[in-house]
Amino acid sequence: MPRTDLLEAVEEDPVFVPRSIRARVLVVAALGPLLTGYAAVAAVLALVTAIAARALFTTHGVLAAAVPGWLAAYQVPVRIEGHELGALPLLPTLLVLVLVWRTAVAAADRLDVVTPREGGQVVLAIAGTHAAVGLAVALLGSGGKISVDPMAGLYYPALLSGLASAVGVLPRAGLSHLLSERMDAVALRGLRAGVLAVVALVATGAFVLTVSLLLSFSTVKNLFAVEGLGGGIGMLLLSLGYLPNAVVAATGFAAGPGFSLGSVVVSPVDFAGGPVPPLPLLGALPEHSAPWWFLLFALPAAVGALVGWVLRDVSESPRFRLRAVAVASVVVALAFAVLGGSAGGALGGGPFHPLDMRAAWLSLALVVWVSVPGGLVAWLTGPRPEFPVEPDVEPDVEPEAADDEDYDIEDVEDTEDESDEDPDTPDERADSPVDSPADSAEDPGADQAEDAGEPPAGR
Asked: In this predicted model, what pLDDT tens digit does every residue of 338-351 receive, in sequence order?
């Protein structure tokens, strides 16, 4: 574009961005999370192999292992010599999603994104690049000891990066304002309450996990001391990586369905002990069941009551308040179906295979814990519609009709009194100027003479 045309376009449109700058920003936004995420994974692997006692550190080996490690950060199942590893740590996934989100926000601010179409260009650039790179990496490594499914390498990075970038870009593009205008107000309040419930339930799981770790502090400490310093640091990094998975498992334990690790089942309603991997984070698992575990059901029930309290003033109609609680329950069910499915998975077909978070039962249980207490609180504590109070009147008698009836009776009485006192007495009728029948029977000739202007005869 010539410089003169460029200056004119900037003067006419304050948010005009030249095509060259737009393309440069989109390329940086698309490649930035890929390179940064790969470098972070390579750095962690280099640290672990450098401090491990029996690991062989080579630069080529670390860089090669970081490629499937980057895919695993996007929850792509990895096959190691034919054994699938699907229960991947969620902390690296959360970190790369935050990285993609910040990159998308920076690109939207740089491009002055104001419309959903402009925001969609940023999202498409990031998600499309992740899909292409994931597919290429999966195809290149298909013949090695560590491989991934090419289709999984395509859609897992594209889906997660697309969601993260959309969360960062589209609110700045006016999409949230557009949805708030077109969505039902009751459904919108229910959606926000559902997000609040998801956060509260995750906090509930974190609380249960923290208490369990504190009660099992000695066991956790001994598991860290099994290996040397290098092994202890590796165990710490591995435990931190699986910390979000453990929070989801603790939420499922408090809700009732619990989880299973191979033949080990941990749930308030069903418990089966057994050996577990020597991971310090698993030191929080109980050895025996306890009857007081049922008291933990009060935690998700309290979250449901919180949802009902938040939605108590959404409408004066109890039916609309219940609909808002139902929307919040659906949001919770969908969120934990995704979290439960992502936190578990295959563990190579060994004795601890699989890690099952029972995502379907977890979603169903949380729907009950949110909808039932929430519906009761919203129904009982919400406002009641006030109806106008009708005045007390006598049955089948209207005040106006009664007045008219009284008025008619008085008129009838007055008429009867007047008829009793006849004013037209014989004397008065004689003096009355009204013509008598004899006067009215005049001579027709007199009338003709009067019409002619002559006086009538005989007067």
From this structure: 999 999 999 988 88
Closest CA to 312 of 203, 197, 198, 193: 193
CA neighbor of 155 nearest in space, from 166, 163, 147, 167: 163
Structure-token pair, residue 141: 């490594």
433 Ramachandran zone, left/alpha/beta (phi>0; psi -120 to 50):
alpha
Give the strands of the sheet with 259-261, arranged side by side. 271-272, 264-266, 259-261, 355-356
Distance from the Cα of residue 422 to its chain's centroid: 90
Close Cβ partners of 341 (under 8 Å, ≥ 6 residues apart)? 357, 359
H-run or E-run covering 260: strand 259-261
CB 177 within 8 A of CB 110: no
Segment (H or E) for 194: helix 185-215
Task: Name the residue with tokens 């936004």.
Answer: 29
Residue written as token pair 């049955």: 395
The two three-digit tokens of residue 239, written as one number: 């435990």
Place of tokens 């990094």: 237
Supply 263's token pair: 């033949």
- CA proximity to 374, closest of 326, 337, 330, 332: 326
Q: Quick check: 272 and 264 in contact, CB under 8 A? A: yes
- Per-residue pLDDT reduced to its tens digit, 52-71: 777 677 888 889 889 999 99
Residues 279 and 231: their CA atoms lie apart, in Å, by 11
Place of tokens 């699986």: 242
Residue-level length of the chain: 459
Cα 107 to Cα 112, 130, 289: the distances in Å are 8, 16, 52
Of the candidates 325, 300, 298, the one whose C-alpha atom is nearest the C-alpha of residue 381 is 325
